[in-house]
C-alpha cells in the first residue's frame, strides 16, 4: 500500500532543555517550530553564522575538481537537470544536458514517479541503489521526502533480499572490500581509497549474521552501505565522510559456495586466531589511516559480536548496533513505560526471553541504566533481570554452554526449585516488563500474559522479534488479555489496538531512532571512547521525546518520521555525557545555550550547494 506522496519534513525544535532525570514527571515533549515554505522546498535550514567556519558546515560553496562528463559521473557533485546556467557554462556542461533548469523538488517528483513504476520492493531497492550512484543529493532528498514509505525498501526487510542476491545484482562496487587472504595489504587498500574529506564514520561487517538471513559473505557490504545511508538520512552524517567496509573471511553458506556468480572468497569461513588477527589488522589500519573515525560493528556472529565489542570498546570509539543500538532503543521504551506505570527503575523486575546478542544487549543496557541511575553496583543491577534462552532460564551450572554475553546473567541453581520455562519464571519473578527477542512465534501465550497481569497494574510487554511472523505475540492479543492495561512496543510497525472503546498506538523499537544520533554525538565530540553513561544518556534523551509521556494512549517512542530531530537530542545528550566524563577531544564544544546550533550546523542536508572550481570561481 502506498502512503501519501509527501509529508513535509518537520523539525521538532526544543524550546527548552530536556531534563535528563527519568524520574522527573515534568518532562514534556517539545513544542514545534515549522520552517518557512522556501526552507521546506529546498531542503535547507537557516543557521547562525556563528559556527559557519566549522569543517562540516555546508553554507560555503563546494570545491569541485571535475568538469564536463566527469562531473556528471560524480554522484557527489552531480546535479543533473538542476545545474544552473552559470555552472553549465563554467564547468563545460553546455550541450550535455537538456536545456531546462529544474529545481531539486521537481527532480524528486520525477524520481518518485520512476520509483513507483518499479514492479516490486527489490526492484525499487535496485532503482534507489542506481540513483545513489548517479546523484547523491537527489537520492537522499527523495528518501527524506518519503521516509516512512521508503524506509523498508532501502533498509530492512528489503535490503536483506538485495544482500542475498548481491552477486547477481552487482553493477558497481561501493565501499572497501578487505579479504582475509590479503590481511597484510590492508594499509595499502586504505591508501587506494579516494577520500576528499576526513572519514568520520566507518561501518564494518563480516557478514556472518545478516538481518535474520544468516551468513551472506561479501554481500555484507550492502548492510554497511545501508547503515551509513541511515546515518545520513537520520543523523546528518556527511556522505563524503563515511566508509562502508566488508571483512571477507569466507562463508559457510553452501548456496553461495556453490554459486558460480558469487563474488566473495569461495572457502569456508575462517575462525580462531587467524580471524582475530584479521580484525585486529583492520582496526589498527583504520585508526592509522582515519584517526578520528568512529567504528560501527554490524551483523557479526553471536560468538564474535560481544567479544569484539568488549575487546575494542576500551581502546577506541566503537559501537555495535545489534547489541547497543537495540539495547538503547528498548531501554528508552522501557523508561517511558516505567514513567507511565509509575514504577521506579531501581525497583523494576525484567524478564528477557531470548538470550542472543540482542537479548543480552538489552539486558546489559537496562542493568547499566539501573546501576547509573540507582547508584547500584552492576552486579546488583543484573539481579533485577532474568534471561531465558531456548533451554530455559540461564543458570550458572550451564558453564561452558553460556556465551560471554550470557554468563553474567546466569542465576544460581539453588534459586530455582521449579521448572525453568517462561511461564514458571513469570509466576516466580512477577515481572513488570517482559521482553522478547527469541524469534519464537506466539511464545507469549494468553496464560503467560494473564499471569503477568495478575501481579502488576500495567504490564510492559515488548515482543521484538523480526519479521512480524516471528513476533512472540500480537499487540491486539496482548491488549485484550490485559483488558487494555498493557504498555506495548514491538520490533515492527503495527496498527493501533482497541479495547473497550480505548485506542492505543503501538511504538516500534526502531534502532534507527538511536544509532544515528549516538554516532553523530560521538563524531562531533570526537570522543575517545563510547561509554556506558553515554548510551544511557542517549536512551534518556529518546525517552524524553516519547508521546506517551503526555498521553498514555500514544506510543512509548517517537515515530521514525521525526528521527532527525530525535538525533539532535540524542547527539546533544551524548556530547554532554562525553564532556562530563572527560572523553570529548573536540575543541570548542559550546555551552548548553549554543550546543544545539553547533550540532545542527554540522549536520548534512540533501540540498545542492554552489560549486566552485578548484583554484577558481564557479
From TrEMBL:
Catalytic activity, reaction form: oxaloacetate + H(+) = pyruvate + CO2; (S)-malate + NAD(+) = pyruvate + CO2 + NADH
NAD recorded as keyword: yes
Query: Which ranges carry the Malic enzyme N-terminal domain?
Result: 132-313
Q: Please share the entry's free-text remark on the cofactor.
A: Divalent metal cations. Prefers magnesium or manganese.
Matching InterPro entries: Aminoacid_DH-like_N_sf, Malic_enzyme_CS, Malic_N_dom, Malic_N_dom_sf, Malic_NAD-bd, Malic_OxRdtase, NAD(P)-bd_dom_sf
Domain Malic enzyme NAD-binding: from-to ranges: 323-579
* Keywords for this protein: Metal-binding, NAD, Oxidoreductase
Annotated positions binding (S)-malate? 466, 510
Residues that hold a divalent metal cation according to the record: 298-299, 322
Fetch the SUPFAM superfamilies from UniProt. Answer: Aminoacid dehydrogenase-like, N-terminal domain, NAD(P)-binding Rossmann-fold domains
* Names of the cofactor(s): Mn(2+); Mg(2+)
Question: Which GO molecular function annotation, any one, does this entry have?
Answer: metal ion binding
Q: Does the record carry Hydrolase as a key word?
A: no
Q: Which GO biological process entries does UniProt record here?
A: malate metabolic process
Q: Which domain of life is it from?
A: Eukaryota
According to the UniProt record, one GO cellular component term is: cytosol
Active site positions, chain numbering: 155, 227
> Record's family?
Belongs to the malic enzymes family.
Q: What is this protein called?
A: Malic enzyme
Q: Which organism is it from?
A: Aspergillus ellipticus CBS 707.79
Amino acid at each position: 500500500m502506498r502512503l501519501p506522496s509527501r509529508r513535509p519534513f518537520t523539525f521538532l525544535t526544543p524550546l527548552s532543555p530536556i531534563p535528563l532525570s527519568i524520574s522527573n514527571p515534568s518532562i514534556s515533549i517539545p513544542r514545534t517550530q515549522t520552517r518557512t515554505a522556501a526552507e521546506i522546498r529546498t531542503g535547507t535550514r537557516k543557521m547562525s553564522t556563528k559556527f559557519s567556519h566549522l569543517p562540516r558546515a555546508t553554507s560555503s560553496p563546494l570545491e569541485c575538481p571535475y568538469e564536463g562528463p566527469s562531473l556528471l559521473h560524480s554522484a557527489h557533485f552531480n546535479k543533473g537537470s538542476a545545474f544552473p546556467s552559470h555552472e553549465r557554462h563554467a564547468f563545460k556542461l553546455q550541450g550535455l544536458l537538456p536545456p531546462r533548469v529544474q529545481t531539486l523538488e521537481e527532480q524528486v517528483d520525477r524520481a518518485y514517479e520512476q520509483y513507483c513504476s518499479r514492479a516490486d520492493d527489490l526492484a525499487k531497492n535496485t532503482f534507489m541503489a542506481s540513483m545513489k550512484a548517479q546523484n547523491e543529493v537527489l537520492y537522499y532528498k527523495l528518501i527524506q521526502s518519503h521516509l516512512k514509505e521508503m524506509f523498508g525498501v532501502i533498509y530492512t526487510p528489503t535490503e536483506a533480499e538485495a544482500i542475498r542476491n548481491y552477486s547477481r545484482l552487482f553493477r558497481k562496487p561501493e565501499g572497501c572490500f578487505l579479504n582475509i587472504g590479503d590481511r597484510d595489504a590492508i594499509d595499502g587498500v586504505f591508501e587506494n581509497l579516494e577520500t576528499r574529506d576526513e572519514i568520520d564514520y566507518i561501518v564494518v561487517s563480516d557478514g556472518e549474521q545478516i538481518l535474520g538471513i544468516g551468513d551472506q559473505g561479501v554481500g555484507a557490504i550492502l548492510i554497511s552501505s545501508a547503515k551509513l545511508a541511515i546515518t545520513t538520512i537520520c543523523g546528518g552524517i556527511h556522505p563524503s565522510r563515511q566508509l562502508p567496509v566488508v571483512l571477507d573471511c569466507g562463508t559457510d553458506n553452501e548456496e553461495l559456495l556453490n554459486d558460480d556468480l558469487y563474488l566473495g572468497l569461495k572457502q569456508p569461513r575462517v575462525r580462531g586466531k587467524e580471524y582475530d588477527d584479521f580484525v585486529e589488522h583492520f582496526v589498527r589500519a583504520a585508526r592509522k589511516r582515519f584517526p578520528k573515525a568512529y567504528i560501527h560493528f554490524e551483523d557479526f556472529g553471536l560468538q564474535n559480536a560481544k567479544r569484539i565489542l568488549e575487546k575494542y570498546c576500551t581502546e577506541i570509539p566503537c559501537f555495535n548496533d545489534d547489541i547497543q543500538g537495540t539495547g538503547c532503543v528498548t531501554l528508552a521504551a522501557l523508561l517511558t513505560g516505567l514513567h507511565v506505570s509509575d514504577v521506579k527503575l531501581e525497583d523494576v523486575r525484567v524478564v528477557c526471553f531470548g538470550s542472543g546478542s540482542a537479548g543480552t544487549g538489552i539486558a546489559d543496557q537496562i542493568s547499566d541504566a539501573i546501576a547509573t541511575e540507582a547508584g547500584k553496583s552492576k552486579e546488583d543491577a543484573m539481579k533485577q533481570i532474568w534471561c531465558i534462552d531456548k533451554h530455559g532460564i540461564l543458570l550458572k551450572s550451564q558453564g561452558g554452554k553460556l556465551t560471554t554475553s550470557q554468563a553474567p546473567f546466569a542465576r544460581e541453581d539453588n534459586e530455582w526449585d521449579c521448572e525453568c520455562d517462561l511461564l514458571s519464571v513469570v509466576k516466580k519473578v512477577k515481572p513488570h516488563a517482559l521482553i522478547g527477542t527469541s524469534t519464537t512465534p506466539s511464545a507469549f501465550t494468553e496464560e503467560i500474559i494473564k499471569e503477568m497481569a495478575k501481579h502488576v497494574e500495567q504490564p510492559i510487554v515488548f515482543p521484538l522479534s523480526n519479521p512480524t511472523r516471528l513476533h512472540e505475540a500480537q499487540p491486539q492479543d496482548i491488549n485484550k488479555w490485559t483488558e487494555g492495561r498493557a504498555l506495548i512496543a514491538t520490533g515492527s510497525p503495527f496498527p493501533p489496538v482497541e479495547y473497550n472503546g480505548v485506542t492505543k498506538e503501538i511504538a516500534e523499537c526502531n534502532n534507527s531512532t538511536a544509532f544515528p544520533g549516538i554516532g553523530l554525538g560521538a563524531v562531533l565530540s570526537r570522543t575517545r571512547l563510547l561509554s556506558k553513561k553515554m548510551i544511557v544518556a542517549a536512551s534518556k534523551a529518546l525517552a524524553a521525546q516519547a508521546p506517551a509521556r503526555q498521553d498514555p494512549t500514544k506510543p512509548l517512542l517517537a515515530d521514525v518520521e521525526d528521527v532527525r530531530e530525535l538525533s539532535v537530542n540524542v547527539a546533544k545528550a551524548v556530547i554532554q555525557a562525553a564532556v562530563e566524563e572527560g572523553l570529548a577531544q573536540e575543541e570548542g564544544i559550546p555551552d548548553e545555550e549554543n550546543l544545539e546550533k553547533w550540532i545542527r550546523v554540522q549536520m548534512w542536508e540533501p540540498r545542492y550547494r554552489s560549486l566552485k572550481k578548484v583554484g577558481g570561481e564557479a
